[in-house]
Specification:
42% of the residues lie in helices and 0% in strands. By secondary structure, it is mainly alpha-helical.
Amino acid sequence: MEIQVGAGHRRRWSNEVKGRIVAESYAPGAVVSEVARRHCISPQHLFVWRKAARAGMLSLPADGTPCSFRW
């Protein structure tokens, strides 16, 4: 196990990846907390992205392809 001391590194998510994760969270039967856990983000973080998508600030994929990117 590796323990890092000091300032942590923030992950940078592309808008495409964010959109795919948000789309996955809107799939029938999806649970936001489970989607967030699969992608190693907090549910609150995912809710912020969902709000941005509803406001038109984040595009969702047209094909509805779920995100397969995971940490």
